[in-house]
Model the fold of this input.
Amino acid sequence: MHITSSFFINDNEKDLHQDILKWVEELAPYNPTSFYHHNLIGEDNADAHLNRSIMGREVVIAITNGKLDFGPWEAIFYGEFDGQKNKRVLVKIIGE
Done:
């Protein structure tokens, strides 16, 4: 539960991980100068906020018979876009 981090589901494949990092860097490049209005107020993490917007803040996962309903290569990933900060995770289980 942090405004510059993300959870997402995708294939657990090393080259895809690198492609995702490259993709978000192209969409919201790290640039701690006046490139972003947010950075003009003394912050330097506008790109991290944008990356979180791109990647999402939560995931919804179906569970059947006590197991995650994933494809054979899927996994849950945590994306941290603004350094290592203390975080907490909220898990809600809704259903029968």
